[in-house]
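hey
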């Protein structure tokens, strides 16, 4: 039997941040979590991983991975990707960032 590489979703995860983020990005939380690899959803998911880690230092890559049903390596890749794109001022990410950058930590 092959072992699934993904982490087990955490039951009872506080979804307030995910829901607020999804609302601002005009998608549903389920779309962020789904196995959808279209460019738009992938970019939104990458940005979610970055935002979640930056706003909540105590949240680990493993915990974020559980929230969105991905591997910790995928979350780390997403965080590093968005950080780099923001540093160079990538024109496609900046407007997305502007929509979500002020989500309060208590969301």
């Amino acid at each position: 039997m092959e072992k699934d590489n993904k982490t087990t979703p955490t039951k009872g995860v506080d979804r307030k941040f995910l829901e607020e983020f999804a609302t601002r990005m005009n998608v549903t939380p389920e779309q962020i979590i789904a196995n959808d690899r279209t460019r738009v959803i992938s970019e939104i998911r990458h940005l979610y991983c970055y935002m979640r880690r930056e706003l909540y230092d105590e949240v680990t890559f493993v915990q974020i991975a559980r929230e969105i049903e991905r591997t910790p390596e995928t979350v780390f890749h997403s965080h590093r990707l968005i950080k780099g794109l923001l540093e160079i001022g990538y024109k496609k990410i900046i407007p997305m960032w502007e929509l979500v950058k002020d989500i309060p930590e208590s969301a």
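The radius of gyration is 13 Å. The longest helix spans residues 39-55.
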